[in-house]
Design goal:
Length: about 120
């Protein structure tokens, strides 16, 4: 859902700016369901590979990208998250994640967690 909203509103940074101004650190977890170039009548939101790559580029420029392992390490050690921390997850284990999302994540050296 968050990915679909972000794709439609082209990431205005108002919320991020206010949160960043009012808090010392933040962690955003962006959750995707499907990254595919096919149209599906599935009950989950889909994101095109082109839009996903745009999101990944935006995140690399504007956030400190963390793996979920790094997020858990911060929690375990009771350390603050980075001022602009972001983790990417992809749910549902569709083959599309491997075909479309994984190569883009590798291309841009972005950590992500794909749930199977």
């Amino acid at each position: 859902m968050g990915a679909a909203i972000a794709a439609r509103i082209a990431f205005p940074d108002t919320y991020a700016y206010l949160r960043n101004t009012l808090t010392k650190s933040q962690l955003i977890i962006m959750n995707y369901h499907r990254v595919t170039d096919e149209k599906h009548d599935a009950p989950v939101e889909t994101t095109s590979p082109e839009a996903f790559e745009g999101h990944v580029r935006y995140f690399r420029r504007n956030y400190e990208l963390l793996s979920l392992d790094q997020v858990l390490q911060c929690l375990y050690e009771q350390r603050s998250f980075p001022k602009r921390g972001l983790a990417i997850t992809i749910d549902d284990g569709y083959k599309d994640s491997y075909i479309f999302a994984y190569p883009l994540l590798c291309k841009h050296s972005v950590p992500a967690t794909i749930y199977l």
